[in-house]
Amino acid sequence: MTNLEPREHYFIHDGLKLHYWEWGDPKEETFVFVHGIRDQGRSWESFITAIVNRGFPLKHAVAIDLRGHGDSDWPNTSRGYQHEDFLADLAGLLKHLDKESLTIIGHSLGGSMCLLYAAVFPEKVKRLVLLESLGPFARADDDVPNIIAERLKGRDYVEIPYPHESLESAAKSLQKTFPLIPDEAALHMARHGTSLKGGRYRWKHDPILRYRTTTAMSEGQIKAFIRRLKCPILFVYGTESDFMKSVRGPRVKLFSNAQIVPVEGAGHHILHEKPEGLAEVVVPFLLDGNTGGRIA
């Protein structure tokens, strides 16, 4: 297998210094990976390795740290975390990369950003892979005034600054919430997703992200985005996840150009829980019409 050690870069967008990881040759076709809430770019590493090991001709991959995550800046206000803001991060990255006809792959929140971007700029996206994501949560009209009030008031979040005495402790805390994540994957997430101070660890993401988003999109607006999608789409869900039973699950019927594939034994965090199983269903979709060599 070729060397998969990533390189890190920064770019400035929307007044923030945003961070991303890069694998391979930037002159080649680019595949962009967008993580979920309270995650970060290096979490894609096992999945990237898995698709390369399955022989997929991946030559250039990029994984962003969205604002408030990983090594990217936090906004100066808690009102900087609407979906439009995260979408601006993705749009800024793609403008920075200066590439057209991209394949974009997103998990959960990141999948919503990929969906929205592909709908806004359908001519710029070659393929779209959505992992446990069919767009943002919708808000009822009557809920919007309270959501706007919450956004305007701002929110404070109090937590123990560095609560974990070891990476193992941080990993175990993650597994308490997501027990299907294996030990090795949880430790990888802790290793790259925490910062160290005074011999103790804390997760890098902004604590305010533990609150619900104050994004206010209606179901009708989200359906309008979905109707604009033009590229081939692969939607993947975990059989142990409740996603398809959620209020967003029925949206899958709206995708006229999508393949819908489950990963057996996976929960919401498919890329961490079953990277090889995920690669098994994603690689055939990506190989359709693709040629070339491995990532370098």
Note down, in words, how this protein is organized.
The protein has 296 residues and is of the alpha/beta class. It has a domain at 7-137 and 213-287: Rossmann fold, CATH 3.40.50.1820. It is 32% helix and 20% strand. It has nine helices and ten strands. It has helices at 45-53, 83-97, 109-120, 144-153, 167-177, 183-193, 219-227, 270-273, 275-287; strands at 7-13, 16-24, 30-34, 60-65, 102-107, 125-131, 194-197, 200-203, 233-238, 258-263. The strands form two sheets. It has an eight-stranded mixed β-sheet with strand order 1-2-4-3-5-6-9-10, sandwiched between helices. A two-stranded antiparallel sheet has the order 7-8. Helix 1 (45-53) links the parallel strand 3 (30-34) and strand 4. Helix 2 (83-97) packs across helix 3 (109-120). The longest helix has 15 residues, at 83-97. It is globular and about 50 Å long. Residues 289-296 have low confidence and may be disordered.
Please summarize what this structure is:
This protein is α/β, with parallel strands linked by helices.
List the topology elements.
Blueprint: E1 7-13, E2 16-24, E3 30-34, H1 45-53, E4 60-65, H2 83-97, E5 102-107, H3 109-120, E6 125-131, H4 144-153, H5 167-177, H6 183-193, E7 194-197, E8 200-203, H7 219-227, E9 233-238, E10 258-263, H8 270-273, H9 275-287
Parallel strand pairs: 3-4, 3-5, 5-6, 6-9, 9-10
Antiparallel strand pairs: 1-2, 2-4, 7-8
Q: Notable features of this structure?
A:
9 helices; 8-stranded mixed beta sheet; alpha/beta; Rossmann fold; about 300 residues; about 30% helix; disordered C terminus; two-stranded antiparallel ribbon
